[in-house]
Every structure is written in structure tokens, then in C-alpha cells.
Design goal:
The complex is a heterodimer. Chain A is an alpha/beta fold. Helices cover 37% and strands 23% of the residues of chain A. In chain A, the strands form 4 sheets. In chain A, strands 7-6-5-8-9-12 form a 6-stranded mixed β-sheet, with helices on both faces. In chain A, strands 1-4 form a two-stranded antiparallel ribbon. In chain B, α3 (119-132) packs antiparallel against α4 (160-169). The chains are: A alpha/beta, B alpha/beta.
Chain lengths: 297, 750
């Protein structure tokens, strides 16, 4: 189902989220001066600290004034500030199309709205944002940019994204890690139904390139609670076979399996300093995003 | 033969059709597999993993749940169908109604009252509950197992309210229990009720008993035992037998086993001695057991006596009666759990004097010339306080027809030559009235005449077996033989013998001579005597024999009286006995023995009917009998010979029964009815003994909650038996809870 781009942005929600900018926790590389920390010392006018001279230091950064006053050798250090580059990775595989009876929208719609809101926030704070849609491979790529018209491009791409194919997260992460030249924030919006170890390996690759990675795990409440109470024929998505099962008898085992999967995922993210953000599609997106953004302040 | 393990009958047989509903859970399970909802599912990998992990366990749990649900329905259906244990191989009874025979053990050990209720009360309470909890259409009959089993309610159509009234009014008799007769009576009752009420297709017999050993452990002779066993097996085929033990483990009991007058007869103005015997059936000695002595309801004396554990003791009392007539003597031992045998009664006929008549067959006209003279002197000897006063009338043969013999206690025939048929009938009637006749032979006696008129029927040999009483009665006056003599009078033996044989002093008449050599009884010379031919198997007893073994004194009970035949005369020419010191005590012992019959007739055991009324004149119309519990019942009067008699057999309670003439209430006749102390030993038999010895191979259910349990527990035990289905419903309830728990455990309940 194709969404209209306008419906992906809720003005009321955006208004409430504006007070919560998306700041980079790690140092990012940008083209222009901004509010985010840069790894490049000396380019910025922002003084960082003094450091005692050590043999081999570049004498260009020697603070002569201090030397004149105190006759001691100190180096001036500066912290670069730059604009943030945010890469939104949206999973458009078939499994993202799932919506249970207890949810008001599919995981894909929820993820689209989340991505739209984040793109708006990033652009609104004069930073750059880009979008990659993927399933088993990268489908669409909008390079990061800070032009306000970029939001419109992103919304249109997301609205037109079909959800018909299988997921393969790990290759996507490796591919993206190679494609992104500048360090920035990579926000993944996906149900992450793939092998955990391969996902972790992909994330590791991203982190290896010093990207700050945020994993937004979008799940339907039915996938979390398994609320079925009668015999059900579960029709598999993404090419999986159909299964006839008695959910009450399976509930406990399913929840254990699913809980174990999520636990392994969370542990892997923690080990890689990746933010793991669970998202239930029956919960307000505004609450979920504002909670997360507030936690980053 | 063991009873079948799973022999069930069903009250609500049609309900068993609902067992088909037990298939419902399986069908629902299969049906639910065919009806399912569909949904897309993204997290299929985890669902498949869960299924791989749990598939075997899920299959097991589902089968378990199916089993529980199926069993649950089956138990509910079985419970509603009300099964019962058909251990007797009972006929299958679709929708049948139950006939319950409630057999109360009426032995007096059931009166044992260790707590606030006696065993009999507990049995009644259980019976009431059984009746209360019976279904509509059930029938109840009541039987009292006593010495003679009594059917209190024998019809199956009596309303429960009436049954309850009958149960309430039941009293524990003071007799023993006759189990063989009761089983036989119940078997007949079951057959009759089943025949009269075809809708009653199931019979249950409840023996509400304390399993007292005297009743349930009695040793039966082989033919009787085989018959009893056969009867029980037939009953068990027709009905389910349930033995309900309502007894308690009590073994301590003291009983008064006898109260006896030391001397007989008892006369006015002379101290009479009584001996009270006690038996301690318990394991604990009683050091100071008080015993009270009552005469006519007034306490006379109290004495303490030591009774060792398992032993007996005696205590004596004496009392001087001032008025003639019947007097009630009672001994009472105070306090234990069984009151019935703590009291014992004695009806004592007290006489002004003892009246005797001596028919002199050869009046001498002078003193000490004939046998009657010696006899009269002996009868009247030593009457200054040591013996009862005996009045003697000496009369010729004609007095037999002229005088009212009934006014005499004993009649002596002394050397009477012969008796006419009329005189023989007079003697016969006199014996029917309870009198006693002592026959002394002599030279005038015509033995053939005696044998014909008083002895055997003409042509009957002495060694032929005796005829039964009814035939004798029927032939009276026709064949000429009245069977009054205890022996046939044979030939005259004119050969002196100088020693007598007391035959080990076994007979009561000579027991007083044991160890008293100075009386010289054994050295009495007998010069002439008639040979006395005692019939084999007759009731006659030889009192005294000659040295060569021939009987000299023979006696037998005849009607209510007694006949003593002395084979010699009381004349010195025949024997030196009249001159010997032993003559006086021998004559007095014979009189006392003859009169003891009167005491025996008035002192009975529970269940024996009241018979003669010696202290009442001949009466016509009805008499009133007052029972120990105060009930007054009319009883028809009749005359047996010259003695009035009463027909009264309801002597189920121990105590004094008073018989009054309605027209002359001041004239009373007393009867003492006592318990048979065989029941006083409270030892019980156990169910193993019941199964192995009394009822081997007989299927029956044993229920006990008695040994230390409350009455409610006893009722619960009965309900358990009668309401088997309650257990099934409880099991269904447990399964229901189990199904809920399983469902929760398996995730079907959230």
C-alpha cells in the first residue's frame, strides 16, 4: 500500500518534538560548522583546552601568549564543530507490511512515520539527512543533504516504497558501511527478522567506520504478546511456509524464543555501543521518539 | 470364593447412555482442527522454533487434557447413575428400587452404654439415617435379632414415617441373639417382599450389631452349621449383606450371674438364706464392689465384695419373710457400662407351711406300724427353726378321689395296693398343676397295676423309646399308659443288701449327704425291693442305687410336677431306712427337691414364656401382666390340670413380671426373668474371624466406624456405602480442578 507523503508527517507531533534535537553523541564529520562535535582539531574557532608541550608536537599550535607570560610551553587545542549527517535506513521487506488486529498500522507505516519525523528534525536543526530503503538489497538511496527540499524527496521515496521482498540485513549493513564516506548517525528502522549474529556482524562493520548506530526495532504487539487463542493457520511472509498451530499451547514457547532473540539482539547492541530502541506499533510514536531523544540529551 | 471385584449395579441405569458424551472432548478437538482462523505472520522463524521445541510435549499435554476431560464427563455420568457394589452377584436392576432390611442385634450386649448413647441407640440412629436418606420408592423392613428373631415391619409398603416411628419405639431386649434363626427369617422375608413387590429389584440387608462373640462367634454343631452357612449363602445371593459394627472396644464388665435361695421351700417366720454370685469379665480386679440386696423393692442390706479380674465371688444375704405369697428378691451391683446384667431377680414363693398328704395303703391304726406312720414322723421331724414346717395329712386310699390334691405340695403313696384309672387321671391332673408324687412300694403293691395305670402303655416294652409328649397327651385314657412312673416296676427281689450307692452324689437329692458319714445313708440295709427298670433314653434319673447297681430311687419330671419312685417300703421289714438317721434328711431333701420345681417355674430366663400361676386360684377370663418397664398387658387365663396358667410370652425384658387377676388384684403371682449371662462377656469377634470361620465364602461388606469413632462418622461410613456415587462426583470435581490447572499450565487459560 502506498502512503501519501503528507500523511507521514504529523504537524502536532513534530511541533512537540522540535524541542528535542537529535544531537550526535559521537564525533561526526560534516561539511559545515554546526552544533556537533568533529574529530578535526584546529579547524574550528572553538577552543578546547591547553596541553603541556611534548617533544614532537606541532609547534604551530604553541600558545605564544602563555609562553610570554609564564615561560612555559603549552599547546592550544581546538574542537571542531560540524553539521550532523544522519542516514536513515528503512526496511521495506514484506515482513514490515504485517499488521495485527490490535495494531492501527503496519510496521512499515510506523517506521515511515518515524523516519519522516527524524528527517524533519535533522533538517530543522540545519543538519544533513539521507535515506536508504532496502530489503534484500538497497532499493533507493537519497544522499544526505541539508536542503529543506530533501525532506520532500525522502517522503516521496518512502511513500512509494513497495514491501514485497525478503529481508537480508547483514549484507545491507556491510553495503551501507562501504557506501557512507563520512561518519554520521545511522538510524536503522526495521523489524530485524534475520539472523542475530549476522545482524551484529553488520552493525560491527558500521561501527568500525565510526558511525553512531541507532537500531529502531519496530514490532507489532502481536509479535510481542502472541495473543491468539484458537487454532490458527499462520501464513508465512517472505517465502516462509504456512503453519497450522494451536497458539495457547505454543504461547509460552514462542514468547521464550522471541524473548531470547530480542535479548541476544540487545546484548549485541550493548556490546557495540549501539542504541537499541524498541518500538511497538500500538504505542504512540511521539512518546517513543521523545523518550529516546530525551535520553540522548 | 472371592467376591467379584467390579460387580456394580446401577440405580440410574438409563443415565449410562450419557457416557457417549465422553467422546465430546475428542470430537471437539478434531473439529477444532478443521476450523481455524488465518493470519499472515512475520515472526515465523520463532513460531517454528517454538513448535520444534514443544511439539512432543504439546502432543502429550493435549492427550492428557483430552483424557482428563473425557474422564471428567464419564465420572459425572457414572456418579449420576448411582452405582452400587453388587458383590453378591445381584440381579441387574434397571431403574430398580431398593429394599433395605435393617436387622437390629437384639442381644443385650447392645445395651452397653460407654458414652451418652448405647450401642442399640447408635444402631437406631444409623437406621434412622438410612431411612431418611432413602429414595422415593425404597422399601424398609425391620427385624430384631433376639433369641427368637422378631419381624417388626415385614411388609415392603410401609411409609418411611411409620418405619421411623417403629425404630423410635424399639427397645433392646435382654436376651441373646440367635444368628442362624435370624438369617433364616431374613432370607424368607427378602423372598416374600421381593415376590410381593416386583418393582423392588435390589435388596440390601444391614446387620446393625456389636459383633458380640456370644452371638457371632458361637460354635455350632456341624449339621446346624452347614444349614446356617447354606441359608447365609442363599441370602447373600438374593441381597447385598452389610455388617455394620456399632460396638466399642469395651471389655470391662461385672455381672451378677445368679441369686439363689439356699434352702427350699421358704416359709414364713424363718430366716431364708440367699447366695449372690458375681463374675468379673474384665481385666481389672474390683476390690470393694458394692452389692445391694432388695426384697419387694426395699433395700435390705449392702455388702462390699472383692472380685478378682476374670474371677467370680459370692456373697450371702438372709431375710425373714413375714407374709406368705410371692416375694421379689433382687441383687444389684452398682455401676458399669452394661446395666442389664448388674441386676438379678428371684421370685420367691413363701409358704405358711408345706402341705403334704400321705396315702396309707395299709392303715395300721396304731403308731409306727406302717410306712405312712414312719413317713409322717420323718416329715414333721426337726421343725423348730431348722427346717420348713411341714404339715402331714395321713389318709386312706379313698382320699385320692375325695380330697383336692391341688392344696397339697406333695402327695406320698405309701404301699397303696393298686390304682384305678380314675385315680391315675387325678394324679395326672395333679402333676399337670405342678404337684409332686412320691411313690413308696410295699407288700400290697400290685406291680402290674402300677405299670398299667401309671407306667407304660399296655404292650410297650421298657426298652422302647419314649413317645413324645403330644402323643402321650393324645393317648391319655385310651391306651391306659400315662407315663407317670420314671421306671417300670419289675419283680420283687427278696435278697438283703447292706450298702447303697449314691452314684457319686450327682443327684441334688443326695448332694446334701456328701461328706456326712454320720447319716449312715450308705450303710442302710435293704431287705426287699422291687426291681426298677429304667428306660434307656428316658428323662428319669437314678437318685440312689443298691450295691449291685440296681436302681432304688428313681425320679423324673412329669408335666409341671415330679414323680419319685422308691423301690422299697418305709417299713422296717423291707428296709432299715425308717430307723436309720439318714431317713429324715432324705425325706426332707426329696420334699425340697420336688418343691424346687415351683421356684424354677417362677424364675425364668429372658424369652421363656410365663407358665403356671401357683399362688392364684383357678381363674377364668383374662389376667393382667405388668412388665418390668411398667407396661400392663392383658393375657388370657387357662387352666392346666387343676392349676391356673397364663399365656404370656413377651418376656424380652429382665425384671419382675407381676400377674394379677383382674377381679382380685391383691392376689398376685410374681415371675423373675433374668438375662443369660453368656452375653456379659463383652469380647467381640473381628471381621477376619467372621470371614474365615462364620461366613467363609459369603460375600458381605463390613463397615465399622464404631471403634472410637463418632456416630456421625458411623453414618458417614454408611453413606459411603449407600452413596457410592458421591465419591465419583468428588473425583469428577477433582478432575475439574485438575483440568483447570492443566489448562492454565498449558496456556489455555490466561
Amino acid at each position: 500500500m502506498h502512503e501519501t507523503p503528507e500523511r507521514l508527517l504529523d504537524p502536532e507531533m513534530l511541533a512537540r518534538l522540535q524541542g528535542l534535537p537529535l544531537r550526535a553523541r559521537l564525533m561526526v564529520e560534516g561539511y559545515a560548522a554546526g552544533v556537533h562535535r568533529s574529530p578535526f582539531h584546529g579547524f574550528s574557532v572553538e577552543f578546547a583546552e591547553h596541553r603541556e608541550y611534548a617533544p614532537g608536537d606541532d609547534l604551530r599550535y604553541l600558545d605564544w601568549k602563555v609562553l610570554g607570560r609564564t615561560d612555559k610551553y603549552y599547546l592550544k587545542q581546538f574542537e571542531e564543530e560540524t553539521n550532523l549527517v544522519c542516514h536513515l535506513l528503512l526496511d521495506t521487506s514484506e515482513s514490515m507490511r504485517y499488521r495485527s488486529n490490535v495494531a492501527t498500522e503496519s510496521k512499515l507505516d510506523y517506521a515511515r512515520r518515524a523516519a519522516a519525523a527524524l528527517a524533519y528534525l535533522v533538517l530543522h536543526q540545519q543538519d544533513s539527512v539521507g535515506l536508504i530503503t532496502f530489503d534484500s538489497e538497497v532499493r533507493k538511496l537519497i544522499r544526505a543533504g541539508s536542503n529543506p527540499s530533501r525532506l520532500n524527496d525522502i517522503l516521496h521515496v518512502m511513500a512509494d516504497a513497495p514491501a514485497e521482498r525478503k529481508t537480508a540485513l547483514a549484507p545491507i549493513f556491510h553495503d551501507v558501511a562501504k557506501r557512507l564516506k563520512r561518519r554520521g548517525i545511522v538510524i536503522v528502522l526495521s523489524d530485524l527478522f534475520d539472523d542475530v549474529d549476522s545482524i551484529i556482524a553488520g552493525l560491527k562493520h558500521l561501527r568500525h567506520h565510526r558511525h553512531e548506530v541507532v537500531l529502531m526495532h519496530v514490532l507489532d504487539p502481536a509479535e510481542l504478546d502472541f495473543p491468539f487463542d484458537s487454532v490458527t493457520l499462520f501464513r508465512g511472509m517472505e517465502g516462509m511456509s504456512d503453519v497450522l498451530a494451536d497458539p495457547p499451547a505454543l504461547r509460552r514457547a514462542y514468547l521464550a524464543e522471541f524473548g531470547s532473540y530480542r535479548h541476544r539482539l540487545q546484548s549485541g547492541c550493548r556490546g557495540l555501543a549501539v542504541d537499541y530502541v524498541p518500538m511497538r506499533t500500538d504505542r504512540s510514536l511521539e512518546v517513543t521518539l521523545s523518550s529516546y531523544l530525551a535520553s540522548r540529551q | 470364593m472371592l467376591p467379584p471385584l467390579f460387580a456394580f449395579g446401577w440405580i440410574g441405569l438409563p443415565m449410562l447412555g450419557w457416557l457417549a458424551a465422553a467422546a465430546a472432548p475428542i470430537l471437539i478437538h478434531l473439529w477444532s482442527r478443521r476450523r481455524y482462523r488465518e493470519t499472515s505472520w512475520a515472526a515465523m522463524e520463532y513460531l517454528l522454533a517454538a513448535m520444534r521445541q514443544r511439539s512432543r510435549r504439546i502432543r502429550f499435554e493435549q492427550w492428557l487434557l483430552l483424557l482428563v476431560r473425557t474422564l471428567l464427563i464419564m465420572l459425572v455420568v457414572l456418579g449420576v447413575a448411582e452405582p452400587y457394589l453388587e458383590s453378591a452377584g445381584l440381579a441387574f436392576a434397571p431403574g430398580g428400587r431398593v429394599h433395605r432390611v435393617l436387622v437390629f442385634d437384639g442381644s443385650y450386649s447392645m445395651a452397653c452404654k460407654p458414652g451418652d448413647k448405647s450401642r442399640f441407640d447408635r444402631a437406631k440412629e444409623l437406621a434412622r439415617r438410612l431411612v431418611d436418606e432413602g429414595s422415593d420408592g425404597d422399601a424398609f423392613t425391620l427385624v430384631l435379632m433376639s433369641a427368637l428373631p422378631r419381624t417388626i415391619v415385614g411388609s415392603g409398603g410401609v411409609k418411611p414415617a411409620t418405619i421411623l416411628q417403629e425404630i423410635d419405639s424399639m427397645q433392646c431386649p435382654h436376651a441373646g441373639g440367635n444368628l442362624p434363626a435370624t438369617v433364616s427369617a431374613v432370607r424368607r422375608l427378602v423372598a416374600e417382599v421381593g415376590r410381593d413387590n416386583p418393582r423392588l429389584t435390589r435388596h440390601e440387608v444391614y446387620f446393625l450389631t456389636d459383633l458380640h462373640r456370644a452371638t457371632w462367634g458361637q460354635k455350632l454343631l456341624e449339621p446346624v452349621r452347614a444349614e446356617f452357612l447354606q441359608q447365609t449363602r442363599e441370602l447373600a445371593k438374593a441381597a447385598s449383606l452389610v455388617v455394620v459394627d456399632v460396638g466399642q472396644p469395651v471389655t470391662e464388665n461385672l455381672a451378677i450371674t445368679s441369686v439363689e435361695a439356699t434352702e427350699s421351700p421358704v416359709t414364713v417366720g424363718r430366716a431364708a438364706s440367699f447366695t449372690v454370685r458375681l463374675q468379673n469379665f474384665g481385666p481389672r480386679s474390683l476390690d470393694r464392689q458394692p452389692v445391694e440386696f432388695f426384697v419387694d423393692g426395699r433395700r435390705i442390706e449392702r455388702k462390699d465384695v472383692q472380685v478378682l479380674a476374670g474371677g467370680s465371688a459370692s456373697v450371702g444375704f438372709s431375710y425373714r419373710f413375714e407374709t406368705p405369697g410371692d416375694h421379689a428378691v433382687e441383687a444389684r451391683a452398682v455401676g458399669d457400662v452394661l446395666e442389664v446384667d448388674n441386676r438379678r431377680f428371684l421370685a420367691v414363693p413363701v409358704r405358711q407351711t408345706v402341705q403334704t398328704l400321705c396315702i396309707d395303703g395299709r392303715p395300721s391304726g396304731g403308731s409306727l406300724r406302717g410306712a405312712a406312720d414312719y413317713l409322717a414322723v420323718a416329715l414333721q421331724a426337726g421343725q423348730k427353726g431348722s427346717r420348713a414346717e411341714i404339715k402331714v395329712d395321713v389318709a386312706p386310699e379313698s382320699a385320692l378321689m375325695e380330697r383336692a390334691l391341688a392344696s397339697y405340695d406333695c402327695v406320698f403313696l405309701c404301699n397303696v395296693a393298686q390304682l384305678t384309672a380314675s385315680e391315675a387321671r387325678v394324679i395326672d391332673r395333679y402333676l399337670q398343676g405342678g404337684g409332686s408324687v412320691i411313690v413308696l412300694l410295699g407288700d400290697r403293691v400290685l406291680a402290674d397295676n402300677y405299670n398299667r395305670e401309671l407306667g407304660l402303655a399296655a404292650g410297650q416294652a421298657a426298652d422302647q423309646p419314649p413317645r413324645d409328649g403330644a402323643k402321650v397327651e393324645a393317648e391319655q385314657g385310651r391306651a391306659g399308659g400315662l407315663h407317670l412312673l420314671p421306671a417300670r416296676i419289675g419283680t420283687l427281689v427278696d435278697r438283703p443288701q447292706h450298702r447303697l450307692d449314691p452314684l457319686g452324689y450327682r443327684h441334688p437329692i443326695v448332694q446334701a449327704f456328701r461328706g456326712r458319714g454320720q447319716t449312715s445313708l450308705l450303710t442302710t440295709p435293704v431287705f426287699k425291693h422291687y426291681r426298677l427298670e429304667v428306660r434307656a433314653g428316658a428323662a428319669a434319673a437314678v437318685v440312689l442305687a443298691l450295691a449291685d447297681g440296681e436302681p432304688l430311687v428313681v425320679e423324673q419330671p412329669v408335666h409341671r410336677g415330679r414323680v419319685v419312685l422308691i423301690g422299697t417300703s418305709a417299713e422296717p421289714a423291707w428296709t432299715a431306712l425308717p430307723l436309720w438317721p439318714s431317713f429324715v434328711p432324705l425325706v426332707h431333701e426329696i420334699v425340697a427337691y420336688c418343691m424346687s420345681g415351683e421356684l424354677r417355674r417362677q424364675n425364668l430366663t429372658v424369652g421363656e414364656p410365663l407358665d403356671a400361676l401357683p399362688t392364684l386360684p383357678t381363674v377364668a377370663g383374662s389376667l393382667v401382666v405388668q412388665s418390668p418397664d411398667g407396661r400392663r398387658q392383658a393375657a388370657p387365663a387357662r387352666t392346666v390340670g387343676e392349676c391356673p396358667a397364663v399365656s404370656f410370652s413377651d418376656t424380652s425384658q429382665s425384671g419382675i413380671y407381676v400377674v394379677e387377676n383382674g377381679t382380685r388384684p391383691e392376689r398376685k403371682s410374681l415371675f423373675a426373668v433374668n438375662v443369660d449371662t453368656a452375653e456379659s462377656d463383652l469380647t467381640q469377634t473381628d471381621v477376619q474371624e467372621l470371614r474365615s470361620r462364620l461366613w467363609p465364602g459369603v460375600p458381605f461388606t463390613y463397615r465399622t466406624s464404631s471403634r472410637g469413632a463418632s456416630l456421625d462418622a458411623a453414618c458417614a461410613v454408611l453413606r459411603e456405602d449407600a452413596r457410592f456415587h458421591i465419591g465419583l462426583l468428588y473425583a469428577a470435581l477433582v478432575l475439574l480442578l485438575g483440568e483447570t490447572w492443566l489448562g492454565w499450565k498449558m496456556g489455555y487459560c490466561r
